[in-house]
Amino acid sequence: xxxxxxxxxxxSIYDQYSRSGWQIxxxxxxxxxxxxxxxxxxxxxxxxxQDWDKLMQGMQALHRGDIVAEREVIFGWARAGASKETFKxxxxxxxxxxxxxxxxxxxxxxxxxxxxxxxxxxxxxETEAKWHSDALEFSEWAIAYLALNxxxxxGVVLDPPYSYRQVSEHYRAVGRRVTSLDTSYNFYNxxxxxxxxxxxxxGHAISCGWNSNGxxxxxxxxxxxxxxxxHGQHKNDTIVLVEEKMQDGEY
Length: 251
Prior knowledge:
Blueprint: H1 2-19, E1 23-26, E2 41-44, H2 49-63, E3 74-79, H3 90-100, E4 106-108, E5 119-120, H4 135-148, E6 155-158, H5 164-173, H6 186-195, E7 204-209, E8 221-230, E9 238-245
Parallel strand pairs: 3-8, 4-5, 4-6, 6-7
Antiparallel strand pairs: 1-2, 7-9, 8-9
């Protein structure tokens, strides 16, 4: 019965949104849905953002966990010299500036010397960031600060240490004790979990690192652009993932 309801939902969505000018791609045959719901329902969005939000909420409410929504992703590839100042790397700086604009209501918990966002933080007091707190503490404060003025973050830029070893080195450099939680994926998760629901719908998360995991759909974010910057020799590429906030996630 659940599979049949899912099939009816797919057909209804297809009819409704195709007439509205959407391009709909169903991955998996509805004829075989009696053997179980398809694992992927792929949508290439050509409609309005608010329609997309309503569609996503309705689909997930009916069959949460078995549906993954996709939109067209822009892929980019560039070559540039490596730098500790990520946003001085030209192709990365240009990408981030396209989304951040004047930086108003944007958060950067690991800013170092970047001034692209309005609210910048870095645990190292020798950097040019406006605040020098732990990334989680800063994120929670910044969200509360914006809320006092009836505002929500327009987006967040995450350029944290890219490895557990780098986390350890950064903490020790400022005299902070490193715990086992700091040198695990909890270091990244706790910041993303703190800000994901605060970012306004239609806002963005820009994640830099050696992987393209980003915030992900469970936090309500879907990829819109991916840039791979190679630095030559045996240096790791820098990967920049831009995601758009679609709905409140669950984690």
